Amino acid sequence: MNITGASAAPIAVGGASNSALEDPAFREQIQGLKAVTAAINEAYIPSALRECFQPGKLREYATDLDLVFDGAIQEFDDGTRGAGFKRSADGGMNYHVALMLPPDAAHITAHVELVREEVVLVESEAISRRDVLHALDAAVDAFSALKGKAEALGHGSQPAPAAPAVMTPDSGIFMGSIVRVENGLLAQKTGRDPDKLTWHDISKLQGRVPMVGENAEINYKQGVGVVKERERATGIER
């Protein structure tokens, strides 16, 4: 194929005497071809992104990247479309990824967060790409950096559950059924109020610790509770 304005002589790649490469008209044609190719690619991007931004495709991409797609595509008032993805992390945390496709569909943006109990601990800068798969790839690549940032801020582990905020007796006699045992404490149903519980610190009890379902009598003096032994039935068997 001959290109108008270019030398008909064979092109020697890398040759200093290659007149075709030095021909201004030839270089102009090459630049023109590149511009046309770029324009075609630019025109194709919106349709390609819209085609990929469908539930079936998004679920396929999510599976490949070990993400969970929530299955829904949101439509915002300005025409922007959004989709959400998750992956579990250590310490009760989760990674959240939101993909946003603007109305012109010229690019796609990923937003990545590390969340615990719907509270955002850390988040990344917005990630912009020209296709869905590369945007998700970049989001997944950001996970380790977010985890490191969260650990540096002291969010690396799930705090242990706190013991019930209760007061244990210092003196008095308490009678009733044991209804709960948790965090080293006994809960005893006492009094006529169905919602009233008396909590006992097991470490401050003397005698056999009663079990759930048992009726117990506990006598406190100076913060120490003595568990009354249950009387055994006596008699002569016949």
How would you summarize what this structure contains?
With 238 residues, the protein is of the alpha+beta class. The chain contains 5 helices and 12 strands.
Describe the structure.
The protein is an alpha+beta fold. 26% of the residues lie in helices and 32% in strands. It has helices spanning 19-22, 24-52, 55-64, 132-141, 143-152, and strands at 68-75, 81-88, 94-101, 108-116, 119-123, 127-129, 172-182, 185-189, 197-201, 205-206, 215-221, 224-227. The strands form two sheets. Strands 1, 2, 3, 4, 5 and 6 form a six-stranded antiparallel β-sheet that branches. A hairpin with a 2-residue loop joins strand 4 and strand 5. The chain starts with 18 loop residues before the first helix and ends in an 11-residue tail after the last strand.
Runs with pLDDT <50, length 5+?
1-17, 233-238
Order of helices and strands: HHHEEEEEEHHEEEEEE
| Helix-strand category | alpha+beta
Rg calculated over all Cα atoms:
36 Å
Quaternary assembly: single chain
First-last Cα distance: 121 Å
Query: What percent strand?
Result: 25-35%
Sheet bearing the most strands, described?
6 strands, antiparallel
Helix proportion: 25-40%
Silhouette: rod-shaped
Number of strands: 12
Report the average pLDDT across residues: 80
